[in-house]
Amino acid sequence: MDVLGEGIADALRLLVTGDSGTCQITLLTLRVSATATLVALAAGLPLGALVALRRFPGRRIALAAANTGMGMPPVVMGLFVTVLLWRSGPLGAFGLLYTPTAMIIAQAAIATPVVTALVAAALQQVDPDFGTQMAALGATRLRAFGALLVEARLPLLAAGMAGFGAVVSEVGAAMMVGGNIEGQTRVLTTAAVLATSRGEFALAIAFGMVLLGLAFAVNLGLTLAAQRRSTQPRAAR
Amino acid sequence: MKRRSPHPLLLLLATLGLVAAACGSPGQAAGPGDERSLILATTTSTQDSGLLEELLPAFTADTGWQVKPIAVGTGQALELGRRGEVDVLLVHAPPAEKKLVATGTTGRRLLVMHNDFVLVGPATDPAGIRDEAAADALGGIAGARQLFVSRGDDSGTEKKELALWEQAGISPSGGWYQSTGQGMAATLRVASEKRGYTLTDRATFLALRDTLDLEVLVEGDPGLLNPYHVIEMTTAAGDSVREEGAAAFADWLVSARAQKIIAGFGVREYGRPLFVPDAGKSVSELTS
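YS: structure for the whole thing
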């Protein structure tokens, strides 16, 4: 049981001393997962809005597909991306396998269904009369859509956080498409797996603690920002 | 005028910026120039033991070639080589390696080093196999129906294990024979927790010994030798294979400098080397 205590002490030591290896791994984790989340938001927001707000044939199937995608095992997505990026694969000419870019592609593919499904759910939650009201007020479609996004900002933020949470914590795809190469594609999750297989349990737990701290810092910042925006206007009025 | 507290998002950015600053260097990993970068497929044992981390920086310093090491089971490493997905292999499964060479997609195949396999198990040794010959020991485990944990991942170690079972005239199956499908370290961990026997390369076992409840029970059988070869892939395997990089890596691994690193690896920590350098020898000259 000493391992847990040692791990936490190790985590603090790594953080306080600014251990260069850990820092580099942490920053790469943040860069890859944040970029992947942004890409997923860029794709998932319009897709989710489309599925939630427009009526078109196959809409329910698209929604079911997005909901299924939420449960897509990262390792399966990792395998698809690996095969696509192989030198002999369709995108092989770009030489992307075992680079951070490959990890971003795989993680964005993992997060996009999550974001899409949650965005769709968030927008469907809003009072169906909302659009009618906005139209009655003379808003253009674009303005109405903007107002809808503001109205649903908390669940939309939750969608972004869920996407980030899904990718920052996954290890299967990161290991497969990144290769866990020291200094290049080693992120906190794959570093923890390697430390475990080397029997360095305290170090593995330390990486886990750093990962938790990182996820908490990001989510705390986003949550505070959202809560503030949702309470402040009322206070000002 | 009312003072506004700073926006939380700004705080978040500032915190992350501080982390980045504390790290001293910009967060960007030094991306290798694609010009002189090669992909090495190798076995989990070279990574889990820590040997790669000694060898690769020295190779890069000497030759300017960046290496992306992908540590997988030998079966997958050979398959990645055959498909031309990687440039060079460092593997330990001679019969399977010879099959790959026979496909005509490889360049040179050179002996780099060896260590040996050992049969490990609980100190109480419920099957009573201590100091027996390898095949007899496996026969004893099967006879006593004691738990044996297999890699089951088509690795070099599993290939060796299956060859030993065949030698013992047994096709292992049943509840006492369990397969993890994982790397050596994970499999050792399972064997330790479940008080089972397993076959392991000595390097990984020594590196993890302190965290395991296992002992070496069978060693020194000539059938337990574990030679590692470097295999160059050629453009016959795939158009993108970097033959020049593969040749540089193979040449370097059998050079005096690399062989010296291998000979010294692990001496300080374990009191004995984990691998024996063998450049220029043939497998038939090896003794453990």
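YS: worth flagging: The first helix of chain B runs from residue 8 to 22.
IM: good catch. Also The mean pLDDT of chain B is 88.
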